[in-house]
Amino acid sequence: MSQIFNAFRYLRDAAAAARKPPLLPWVAIPLLFNIILFGTLYWLAGSWLAGWISGLAAGYEFAGWLSFLNPAIEGAIWLVSLLLWILLLAIFASVFTVAVQLVAAPFMGLLAEHTDKSVSDSPLPDESIPAMVVRTFRRELVKTWDWLWRTTLVGLALLILWLIPGVNVAVSLVWFLWSGWLLGIQYVDYGADTRQVPFRTLKLRARTRPWLVLTFGCLVLALTMVPIINLLVMPVAVVAGTTIWHRELAPADPA
Fold this sequence. Notes:
The chain contains nine helices and no strands. By secondary structure, the protein is mainly alpha-helical. The protein has one domain. α2 (about 25-55) packs antiparallel against α3. The mean pLDDT is about 80.
């Protein structure tokens, strides 16, 4: 139970630390990046869909005694466009969080580095910023592949279970827990990556505090499902994950 409560505490403390120096500037960078990228893609996709709907409805204007239906048609088109904007927001909220992990990895790496400095007294490994950016990007590719093939196997297993009456009710819960575990590993790894600890070692260390990593990941996952909040939670989760690594998971000798 202490691991579960600690997950809540680490996320709460990270939210408080992210609003204060010295972390605030480094939280603002990925936050602004997320907002600009999310807003631009959302606006472009929404505008294209709205234009496509308007184009489809362009030739459906009634004349003569049926012209009284035109305002109703215009209202229906407006309502459909609004619903599509809302649906698009929901889709972006779920897909964007996964996609941005790879794109924003260097920004998150810098935030993790400064979080490391605030929670640890030991010096960081010597590394230039370009080298850190390349290493972080490569590590994200490794994590993405690791996540992809494992999730594919889990998905196939759950698909089989979904076909079994009575058992299929648990499929959604198992999928949520699996996704939460992956997300917990994702954010805790920022702390391990800053210390250049191999990803394989990180996964082994995470198993020593499974309920902490799982609860932390599920909390972050739940928050990423809320539009707008999903943009704010990512840098906070990096701060929390880095802190969890140093205080709970880091081996005595990282080498």
